[in-house]
Every structure is written in structure tokens, then in C-alpha cells.
Amino acid sequence: MRVVPGQWLRTFKSYGLITPAEEYQLGVEVSATVKEVLFQEGQDIQVGDVLLRLDKKKLQLQLSGAKASVEEARANHEQAESTHGRNQSIYQSGVISEQTYLQSEASLKSTRANLQRALAAYDIARQELADAEVKSPVNGTVTHRNIEPGQTVTPNERLGVIRVTGGLRVESFVSQKEINHVRVGMLASVTSPAVPSRTFAGRVDRIASSAEPATGNFEVGVVVDDAGSLLRDGMSAMVKFRGSPEEGVMAIPRNALVDRHRRLIVFRLKDGIAERVEPTVGVGNSDHVPVYDGLESGDEIIVSNLRLISHGQKVQRITEDAALAGK
């Protein structure tokens, strides 16, 4: 067969386990004592379900205090505004000094800033009171519960974990030889022995920055969005990666490569003589491999009876029609 450049779609496989694509870490936004815990491990959760209720007494007192501060700051600001407005009109007529006028202007600015701070503190207190009732932002299943009523909790504590419904990820491992061909967003297909009749669409969403010390392989996460209820956490899976098409690449049949003394070679046919060539090949698929050096466009290579071929041997070309006629 003759070798000619064409489009090459790089594909390769890896294996891994199916895990949740996303987990929600349950926490609180305010320090308080837990009054009620309304979820259990294994429970299915819907968006908006109340998961925790915190003790509101201290938070309500804080809100009342913030509200009183706003009322006081507003009264002071209105008084300063009235005084400055009056001073502005009489200052222009020369009744008061410039110093008195500037003092009233500074007082107005100060009371305005105090009012803004009081309003901000009130908004924070009101939000903290609302945060005393913790609701789920996701649909999913509770996998961990680390909280009991009566405990005092603070922000950044992990109080539970919800496995988000709808998304799964295959945690697979890719060799050093292939990892440079993997990109975030790259398309992939996923199959599992549990569902042998289906192939699921996937995409790479994360790539480890370093290799596993024990194996030298890189962990690659592939999100599967259309699995429905067919794939489950813990199932094994095979991922077939599909890279971007490369133009102008020469690909040859995998069976055209011969292992001679631990070197992969092909036999090029030149003037009726078999010529041994050791090409530079890339990562191929099950049928073909790309050739990056060693062969030229238009070269003719031998693809059959390779066990009988040796370098420098005279070879007779047999067309497909002749081969069929000889059967």
C-alpha cells in the first residue's frame, strides 16, 4: 500500500472507577449552637430542604441592636443635615463664620458615614439571622453527617457531605507517554462492564499536575453527563480519549509493523526490493499508528506475508485481483 498524508484522530484508552462528579460540603456562615439536625446519612436531599436550624436567640439580639444603631445614626444624620442646610444659607449672608460652616459640613459627612456603617452592620445581622436556617442548594444524597444538636459550630467546619445528583466522573490514570496529548475539555467516550451495550459521552475536566509516585501515571478526571441511573459510584469503566484531528499525518496499518530484534520496522518496496525502515511512530489506535519520520509521502510499504520478508529480498507485487484468483 502507498503511504499518503491525511487526517489523523489520536485515540487511546485508560481504565478507572466511577465516582461522584461533585460533592457539596455542608457548613454554616455564622458561629452558633445547633438546635436541630434534619438530615441523615443515606437520605435523598432536594434543593431548598432545611438541613440545620441554629439557635437564633443571640442572632436576634444582634439584629435588634443593629436596628437601634441604624435609627440612632439616621436621627443624627438628619439633624446634621438640617443644621448644615441652615448654616449654608446664613453663611452666604455673612451671619456665621467660615469655621462654623465648615464644622457643620464635616459633621454632616461624619454622620453620613456612621449611618452607612450602621446600615451595613444591620444587613450583616439580618443575613446572619437568615443563615440560622441552613438549606440545601443542590439535589443529592447525604454521604456523611458530622454534627449533632447542641454542638457549637463555626464557619469553615465540614458538617456533612452531599453527593450531587446528575453528574459522575471516571477517575482514570494515563501513562507518561500519553499525558501530553490530554487536554481539559477533550472529548472522550466511556464504557462499563456493568452496561456493556452503552457508550456514554464524556469530557476531561481535570488533569493531575504530577504523576503518582508508585506508577508514574497521571490521574485524569472525565465527567459523564448522560449516564442517568445506569452508571453508579464504584463501578469500573474504560475511557477512550479522542484528541483534536491532526492534518497531514501519515498513518499505516498496525499490522505493517514487524518486531525485529526488539525494534519496530516496516518494509518499504523500492524497485521491487524490500527495504528495511525503522520509522518514528506515535501513539496509535487499535488499527493504525501515525508515522512522523522515516517514510515519505508516496512510499509503498508491504503489509502482507511479513514473516517471509527480509531486507534486500526481491518481492513480487500481487494485486488484490491476482490474490483472489490464486485462491
The helix content, as a percent range, equals: 10-25%
Shape: elongated
Count of strand segments:
19
Uncertain stretches of 5 or more adjacent residues: 321-327
Q: Can you give a write-up of this model?
A:
The structure is a single chain. This protein has helices at residues 57-92, 98-130, 176-179, 320-326; strands at 5-20, 23-26, 32-37, 44-45, 50-54, 133-135, 140-145, 152-153, 160-164, 168-174, 187-192, 195-207, 218-224, 236-253, 258-260, 263-270, 273-277, 280-281, 288-293. It is an alpha+beta fold. The chain has a six-stranded antiparallel beta barrel with strand order 1-10-13-12-11-14. The chain has a four-stranded antiparallel β-sheet with strand order 2-9-7-4, with no helix packed on it. Helix 1 (57-92) runs antiparallel to helix 2. The radius of gyration is 37 Å and the shape is elongated. The two termini are 21 Å apart. The relative contact order is 0.19.
Can I get a quick summary?
Helices cover 24% and strands 38% of the residues.
Task: Break the fold down into its secondary structure elements and pairings.
Elements: E1 5-20, E2 23-26, E3 32-37, E4 44-45, E5 50-54, H1 57-92, H2 98-130, E6 133-135, E7 140-145, E8 152-153, E9 160-164, E10 168-174, H3 176-179, E11 187-192, E12 195-207, E13 218-224, E14 236-253, E15 258-260, E16 263-270, E17 273-277, E18 280-281, E19 288-293, H4 320-326
Antiparallel strand pairs: 1-10, 1-14, 2-9, 3-5, 3-8, 4-7, 5-6, 7-9, 10-13, 11-12, 11-14, 12-13, 14-19, 15-16, 16-17, 18-19
Helix pairs in contact: 1-2
